[in-house]
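User: Sequence in, structure out. Go.
Assistant: Echoing your sequence, followed by the structure tokens.
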Amino acid sequence: MFRYILLSLLLTFQLSVAKGQHEADNWICGGHDTYIKFSTGNPVLYTPPPGICGLWEQAYCDFFFTGYCASSISDSQGNLKLYTNGEVVWNSNLDTIFDYGTNLEWNRHSSQSLLVPKPGNSSRYFFFNTPYLLTNEGVKYLEFDVTLNNGSGGLVAPSTTLMNPSCQKVTATYHANVRDIWVLVHEWNSNVFQAYLLTESGINSNSAISQIGTIHQEPIPPNPYGVDSGSGGEMKFSTSGNKVVLAIRGLDRVEVFDFNNETGLLTNPWSLEIESPNSIEFSHDGTLIYIGTDGHWSSLDTASVYQCDLLAGDSLAIVNSLVPVTASNISENWLQLGPDDNLYYVQTFNNDDLSAFTSPNSSGVSCGLYTSYLTIPGTYCGGNLRTLPNLFRPFLDRNILFSNKCLGDTCMLN
């Protein structure tokens, strides 16, 4: 009886913790001013107040604009804290608190930027941005405190270069201790991954280095469109943090690796050849990968979202499991897991609505494509929805996450 009661208490506590995770509830998306909230469990459009938007029915609201590399972060109660387009950082009042300036304008066209929480400090957040074509600028990071300037937020220290030269890729997951954070980036003209540990003390400059997989470099011959370099394409952890998937856009390749979240090292590479992959995502359970290809800045007459089953068998069987799960289009296809059970995607320059796979853990057409899952009317204050925000991956884990709560403590019953 004692064990049963204790187990029930633990399960009840774990479920309450899971329900309290809302750090990925606010999506300020790439393009012009599209703000989507998941606070009710389903995605809904949010309209900023007139003081910010003005006559938003007649023009863009312009509280946000980016090419591609949006990122946003909220607290555990779902309150927006910061969001970025890779070169500017805004606070929860939609006010600018940092701007790199026009000399680094290229950052907003990079594949990814990222906001992550600082371990052990609920008011501090780290922002990582990656270069677009100027790979020699490297990955840079900043630390923000949202309590500075009477709660408006502010910069803690000047910009620091993490690694140089760099690709347009950055993703993050928890260390095995479920407290510290691994920030993963990739060198340019190299096959080296560097995983940096973020702790309560800040960034550890001694990275875990994995020399594995494809050398990220310019394609030979060069791509005639000028934008499809080997630097471009997204990289993401699975939500559990045990795998990494990346798209090498200019080299027409997708790669998957195992990740050791204790050592920060990658192993067991597997690759797939597919033309012009730009966006990438895992299913919630990590058994499937979704690949968004680009028909806008490539030679493709048609593009699509493809699915590949990592449990299909050997390498050849996995490659042969590749199937399209959307209709063909001539757009860019961008993917992002939601804080709910869905995987969302958007077609840049083709359809402003937010579409979804409502059963993303299911293979083939059973993944449940729902086009225009969230319709964005022409009267909305934003403009075109181009891409979806890059998020701290553990915030999307649908499994129960907790640490150091009550295991090992003494429990007494009257």
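User: And one key feature?
Assistant: The first strand starts at residue 26 and ends at 32.
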